[in-house]
């Protein structure tokens, strides 16, 4: 069919669909390629969820304008029910339009639930007039759930949806209209909101892959912000089958009721149970990402399938399991507290490709916008959410965070550890003139902010290009900026010339030795035992192969570094040895080092199988030791460390207590702990046990590493990690400990401060 014009909210809905439409009428757009828009470039933006009346009048005028030039024009609506506000002669030009009767039933949340009673599992729900609603009344009817969702029967995008509880009930009641009916349901804050696209034909239907709905709680409202198809890959088959079964039942009812075309079905996932929420008889905000994937796979778009369903063309069905949607999407809306954040995202995202310009929808960051107004959106080829633990974490770097300038050192350090830095081109030129950038641990660089305050910042990974932190030039010095505000002058570590050398046997120095801050690390083990045995920790990005080397190579490198580089102490570590090892190699290495230098030796290893080896390590000259427990609870340890996690946690405590009896309890015996991979109660009780036996805990925030099984897992939110840090500090103080290590230079990649 030719001469079709799109009528919708955003012109960007037509990404990958330019061939299908002659032009478009949209709330937001750029007036290119036949687009007629209400809020174009340079025009102050309003919240489209509350300005639909303005848009209705604008639609009529724009349709008349198009018809005057193209009498054959037909119009296809993003939300077809809006077409029923048109005059007859315009409505006759609308295609893919279901009957008003069925649209009214489906569009009304309560009517739809009643209509589908028995066809889909639903949460308990009641309908009440605004004047009837009080916390006492709702508790009495729904059984003292304490927190509820109050919704208008017809609403979208979160407008008209309120979280209702004892803290805000008076404020919410003032917003309710006395004679308006509202639906009231219990609120489950950890529930996952899921959406499935469906296209209904005369005798069949097409189901598409499920997406997570990114919904944020803002000012007592639940606001839709985006979608994530990728994170749904972590849903197990049992859950997906439950969704499919309910969706099939709902689609059969729609088929029988002569509904045609696209709809979106929303579900809630609560404790492995799937509950139906509502049907949206329209295209979805997430359709753009789904259509992009369908185009990649040369499949018909949802829009084409909808047209075919109305004109009697049934297509070959593809299983929802066979369609891969490797995208997530996020819509950015005006928030006076997030202007710098939005500007940063906008500049970075759109600077990388002109093909993305359609997603601007006519926005530029000098345009005025009222609170809550849509600005622009972005589509990412990676996950924005993490649902692996049953709740949902949103990538703060891309989805937003509290952006007041981080003045407190621990907050600044945590944000740098998590978000990383980018480096301006001028700063890169300056660095290259003075040497080569020294890469720190885990694809990061170490920066020195103030005396002894060193932070290991991700660089070039984990979307650090979106970081609010930039290293720039200020006069003739490197400086760290938070958005456009300077924090402090900084310095960096340059790469040692020795890093480029090879031993007389042809082994690269970098395969064995690594100079970081004031410490030389010696990898006495070419490849981690668990990497070799295909049972590695899921968060680890150490290589599975390495150049083989001998003690002769190690000794040659040690001699060269001792003679030609400056550092304070030496760490023996980097990848686990065979857990059955007798530690002969480590003892031999320690004895060699003690003959060559008086520098302190720090050993980081698995606890030896024979605890009588620990005194031998002490006698060999090891001055500090760490057995890193990492995850305390056995089940979680096995989940993320399938090899190393088999060592009983109790054995770690036994080995650490033995070490404390030799090295004392003043920080020479340590254990690394990862924040973000196990529930808080296990983490805090484990840290208390460490402190109680005289072991200094070292706090490592979980950072997802590329090419690992946990690459898409997200770290804890900044605010949550700061809360944990305060609790851990209290525990440490109780037992005379501090979050370690004590050496300020070795604190570079741990959540600790040199002035604790």
**How would you characterize the largest beta sheet?**
7 strands, antiparallel
Round the mean pLDDT to the nearest integer and report it.
92
Number of helices: 21
Strand element count: 33
- What spatial form do the alpha-carbon principal axes imply? elongated
Strand proportion = 15-25%
Please mark out the parts with pLDDT under 50 across 5 or more consecutive residues, or reply none: none
How do the strands line up in the largest sheet?
A: 14-13-10-11-12-15-16
- Which fold does the CATH topology of the domain at 502-749 refer to? TIM Barrel
Radius of gyration: 30 Å
In CATH, the architecture of the domain at 502-749 is Alpha-Beta Barrel
The CATH class of the domain at 502-749 turns out to be Alpha Beta
The CATH homologous superfamily of the domain at 502-749 is named Aldolase class I
Distance between the termini: 71 Å
The percentage helix is 25-40%
Structural class: alpha/beta
Can you tag this structure with a few keywords?
single chain, 756 residues, alpha/beta, TIM Barrel, 7-stranded antiparallel sheet, 21 helices, 29% helix
